[in-house]
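Researcher: I'd like a structural prediction for the single chain below. Treat it as a standalone chain; there are no partners to consider.
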Amino acid sequence: MFELGSALRPWFRLESGIDFLNHGSFGAAPGDVLDAAERWRGLMEANPDHFFRDVLPSELRRAASELARFLGADAASLAFVDNATTALNAVLRSLEFGPGDEILLNSQSYGALRQITRHVCERTGAKLVEPRIALPLADRSQLLAALAPAFTSRTRLVVIDHISSPTGLVWPVAELAALARSHGAQVLIDGAHAPGQLELDLPALGADWYVGNCHKWLFAPRGCGFLWSHAQAQARIHPTMISHGYGSGFAAEFDWTGTRDVSAWLAIDAALRFLQELDAARVRHYCHQLVARTAQEIARAWREPLAGPVPLHASMMAVRLPRAWQEAAPATRETAAKLQSTLLRDHRIAVAIMAIDGALWARISAQVYNAPADYERLLALGLRGPR
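Model: Treating it as a single chain, here is the predicted structure.
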């Protein structure tokens, strides 16, 4: 059994000298998986006609079957997409909304999702509803309490984070899906961060649709995501790029939206094999224990709160920055982006900085190549304050 931690860092092609604490944003694939994708590209380039006409259809469905098995799903209900945002677009822009219909998000929803929903609402007259999720969170009941009063007779769709992007909080999605169904609303789960962080059984969650990324926590190359649809909800959903498969069924429509590089999709079996060789349950335990330990140490040193209790997290946690950093500049998206760039450029620390409800937060990730020492410079820099 391979040792997890800094011993695995050479397996990835990350630049040396950087404390890489931001796996959650863009992921990192091990070299073996990137090599597998390159082999698929080689086959594609060697004989394009044979590859796209004779090889790809069956290989794509084989890859979908491998991923579906990992997710507890049926391959016919799963399609590859570039990323979770692509899948969110497909669902939201396929559904029919009218004036006064309500789409329920929340204040912690991912920014791209909010923009997609704004676009849909502007075109249809539907209303975007975003109840506020106050931080720090005391327990999971606050998530249910915040969303429950927001349902009305006009709620048509609720989009639920499985793991919140800004904070790393794990949401009680099955309970919220049941609540939505009791109000007659359809359910879309944004699981961008969940595959690999959590053990999943998609049909058991009670959603109509589930979207996820494979390039973040499943070790796939970038450009690999998926859309799962309940069988009864498939006919309503189409890719944003309509092509030859239109009208031929859910999987056929998404499998071919035009000529493209499909190597990231076909390399999913190599990514899953890498994860299983490390033992997926062992990886989840290691990452959770590492991020919980280091985030609590940072929070104690900074005398600042975590976004929520440790049990409500998987492999990402957010800590509020010390007061000196809060007072240095307004807690805006622009301030957060500038600080994040400064930390990487001047201090070689890659960490996500978030502006949430008038405060700046550091969201740290833990992956199999991380070790406790990776977080020490961030802790010290937070105490030192801006200069």
